[in-house]
Fold:
Amino acid sequence: MGPETVSARGRFIAFEGGEGTGKSTQARLLAEALEARGIAAEITREPGGTPGAEAIRDLLLAPPGEGWTREAEALLFAAARADHVARRIRPALEAGRWVVCDRFVDSSRAYQGGAGGLGDEAIRALHAFGSGGLRPDLAVLLDVDEAQVARRLAERDGETSDAIGGRGETYHRAVAASFRNLAGADPQGFAVIDGTGEPQAVHARVLEALAPLLPAEAS
Ligand code: TYD
Structure:
């Protein structure tokens, strides 16, 4: 094979954390920083990222009727992810592009598995079936204290939030605890980043955590 046909697999980075922790902003800043270094990067999100998965997103965030059972909810997240992984994430990685994803399977583990009570084994089984168990090269968990998150969300959402974001304080506290447990149990797979302060300051911390994955910068 000639050099054009051989490309190293791209890296897969997922941003994780509760609502209002700055994932979308950090995903964008990272994708821009990668492009600036000449690394082709795609930014995407979950639930969503493909037409099918975006349609499932609408079903999840504004459920018809009385809402989903917790099992149906977990299956819908897994179905959206399966489409996203097969149609977008894997092809991009195989073509040598980096993928920066705003939430991935660890959100299902923290929300449906932890806070929702389905347990980690069930979520991992769905992910194995739907998406071949794909893991990000690094999950970046943005850690922001509760009071600061409440302030950010009040500014961003006002009184409105979606079916999951609108769940009570107890649920979101359980989500945060669950994320911390997942990260604690897998220090290689997660980088826990202090998400407080200016976006650029947080971005600098993210780049530091990613340094081992980045090609050395030309001086
Ligand atoms: P998102 O649009 O990222 O919300 P936010 O910007 O508030 O973080 O995600 C939509 C909601 O879906 C959010 O409340 C988290 C939830 N979610 C799960 O419960 N499980 C999942 O697997 C994913 C990807 C998201």
Observations:
- The mean pLDDT is 93.
